[in-house]
């Protein structure tokens, strides 16, 4: 199966026991369109009382962690697909070459660092939505919590938080579970976006794929993984950020059709 074919179909799973099956990627932009099926449990469950602020899209979208792969892909999707929305892209150094290479148009570069909470209030001022891209740092739980708490103090109505493996007895799992808990107990509306591994992580194996149809790595060949492309992660995040009322207070897992490790070379669209 070619990479483009595999990634053309995917399943968003709402946790727990709620599933939204999208036949095509475009269906996500119209989350309850006829091409999607939403489990009726989503609407039958009683909704808890909340003091969360109503969501209005009167201010800009802020992306914290803009220079990484997920952040930059989200900016590109926002610039290409949702140009009417104003976006603040927070980076440590807006004057750096990496920052200058980020998408432009409706994107404004601003200085901001989750490890320095004092830099966050000014860039969050007046924003309607914040995307907290959890950094690849050993102290990721505290950094993401800093951002969640800053959004709460700034009275931001909606945050999206990206995480990887949660609810597992691993170092990563415990850290991401802590981040999810911080978002859920906050008085701010939230969406948790759980991400699997990225297919781009295997681009370093392109030569062995070309010459041997093989990927080398410490993985059992028949274990099934559900890799996604960073581009699709950015498009999913951008869709949620621009349609917050549809996705508020939900947990999504972005995934694809499962593929055994030994078949990963078939996912590369090589000639």
What does this protein look like?
By secondary structure, the protein is α/β, with parallel strands linked by helices. The protein is built from ten helices and twelve strands. The chain has helices at residues 3-7, 41-44, 69-81, 97-100, 120-124, 140-153, 171-185, 206-212, 230-242, 244-247; strands spanning 10-14, 18-22, 36-38, 61-64, 87-91, 107-111, 129-133, 158-163, 189-194, 224-225, 250-254, 259-260. The strands form two sheets. The protein has a ten-stranded mixed beta sheet, sandwiched between helices. The protein has a two-stranded antiparallel sheet with strand order 10-12. Strand 4, helix 3 and strand 5 form a beta-alpha-beta unit. Helix 3 (69-81) crosses helix 9 and helix 6 (140-153) runs parallel beside helix 7 (171-185). The longest helix has 15 residues, at 171-185. 34% of the residues are buried. The model is unreliable at 1-48 (pLDDT under 50).
How far do the termini sit from each other?
A: 14 Å
The number of distinct β-strands equals 12
Class computed from helices, strands and strand pairing: alpha/beta
Tally of alpha and pi helices: 10
Largest sheet: 10 strands, mixed
Radius of gyration, in Å, reads 19 Å
Our estimate of the beta-strand percent is 15-25%
Which sequence of SSEs, written as H and E, runs from N to C? HEEEHEHEHEHEHEHEHEHHEE
Give the integer mean of the pLDDT values.
Answer: 80
Low-confidence stretches: 1-48
Instruction: Give the strand line-up of the largest sheet.
Output: 3-2-1-11-9-8-7-4-5-6
Silhouette:
globular
Helix content: 25-40%
């Amino acid at each position: 199966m070619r990479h483009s074919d595999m990634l053309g179909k995917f399943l968003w799973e709402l946790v727990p026991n709620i599933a939204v099956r999208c036949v095509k990627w475009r269906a996500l932009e119209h989350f309850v369109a006829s091409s999607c099926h939403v489990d009726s449990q989503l609407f039958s469950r009683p909704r808890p009382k909340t003091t969360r602020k109503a969501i209005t899209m009167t201010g800009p979208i802020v992306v914290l962690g803009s220079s990484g792969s997920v952040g930059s892909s989200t900016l590109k999707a926002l610039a290409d697909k949702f140009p009417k929305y104003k976006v603040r892209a927070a980076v440590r150094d807006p004057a750096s070459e990496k920052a200058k290479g980020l998408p432009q148009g409706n994107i404004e570069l601003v200085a901001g660092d989750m490890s320095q909470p004092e830099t966050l209030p000014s860039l969050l001022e007046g924003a309607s939505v914040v995307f907290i891209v959890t950094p690849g740092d050993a102290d990721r739980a505290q950094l993401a919590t800093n951002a969640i708490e800053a959004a709460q103090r700034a009275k931001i109505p909606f945050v999206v938080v990206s995480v990887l493996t949660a609810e597992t007895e691993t170092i990563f799992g415990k850290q991401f579970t802590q981040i999810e808990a911080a978002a859920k107990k906050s008085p701010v509306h939230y969406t948790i976006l759980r991400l699997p591994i990225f297919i781009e992580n295997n681009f370093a194996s392109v030569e062995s794929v070309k010459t041997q149809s093989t990927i080398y790595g410490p993985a059992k060949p028949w274990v099934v993984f559900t890799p996604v492309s960073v581009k699709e992660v950015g498009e999913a995040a951008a869709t949620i950020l621009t349609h917050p009322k549809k996705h508020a207070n939900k947990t999504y897992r972005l995934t694809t059709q499962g593929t055994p490790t030994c078949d990963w070379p078939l996912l590369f669209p090589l000639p």
